[in-house]
C-alpha cells in the first residue's frame, strides 16, 4: 500500500495465455495493482499491460504454514487484514 495515499486499494489481476507445453489456454495470476477503484486499476492495466484483467479487490493476505508431514495449510495467526482500521 502506498504510504502517501492510504486510500488506495490492492487489486488482483489475471492473464489468459497458452501453456507453452500443452498449448492449452490457461488462466494465470497476474501482478497486484494499487488504485482507488476497479475502473482505475483496469485503466492502468489497459495503458501499461494490455493483457491484464482486474478480477477483484484483495482484502486479506493469508500465508501458509507447513506441518511435519509437508502438508500446507492457512496460517490464520499471521494473516494480514488489508481493510483493518480503514473504516474507523
Write up what this structure looks like:
- The chain is built from one helix and eight strands; from the N terminus they run βββαβββββ.
- It has 88 residues and is mainly β.
- It has one domain (9-81).
- A hairpin with a 5-residue loop joins β6 and β7 (72-74).
- The longest helix has 11 residues, at 38-48.
- The chain is flat and about 45 Å long.
Give the helix/strand layout.
Blueprint: E1 9-18, E2 25-29, E3 33-35, H1 38-48, E4 53-58, E5 60-61, E6 64-66, E7 72-74, E8 80-81
Antiparallel strand pairs: 1-2, 1-3, 1-4, 5-8, 6-7
Keywords:
mainly beta, 1 helix, four-stranded antiparallel β-sheet, 88 residues, single chain, two-stranded antiparallel ribbon
Q: How many helix segments?
A: 1
C-alpha geometry: flat
Give the SSE order as H and E letters. EEEHEEEEE
List the quaternary state of the chains: single chain
Please give the number of β-strands.
8
Overall number of domains? 1
Largest sheet: 4 strands, antiparallel
Radius of gyration computed on alpha carbons: 16 Å
Structural class: mainly beta
Helix content: 10-25%
Give the terminus-to-terminus CA distance. Answer: 17 Å
- Regions with pLDDT < 50 over 5+ consecutive residues? none
What's this, in brief?
With 88 residues, this protein is mainly beta.
Amino acid at each position: 500500500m502506498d504510504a502517501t495515499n492510504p486510500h488506495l486499494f490492492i487489486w488482483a489481476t489475471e492473464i489468459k495465455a497458452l501453456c507453452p507445453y500443452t498449448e492449452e489456454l490457461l488462466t494465470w495470476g497476474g501482478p497486484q495493482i494499487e488504485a482507488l477503484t476497479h475502473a482505475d486499476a483496469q485503466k492502468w492495466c489497459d495503458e501499461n499491460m494490455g493483457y491484464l484483467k482486474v478480477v477483484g479487490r484483495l482484502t486479506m493476505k493469508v500465508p501458509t504454514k507447513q506441518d511435519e508431514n509437508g502438508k500446507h495449510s492457512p496460517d490464520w495467526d499471521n494473516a494480514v487484514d488489508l481493510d483493518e482500521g480503514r473504516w474507523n
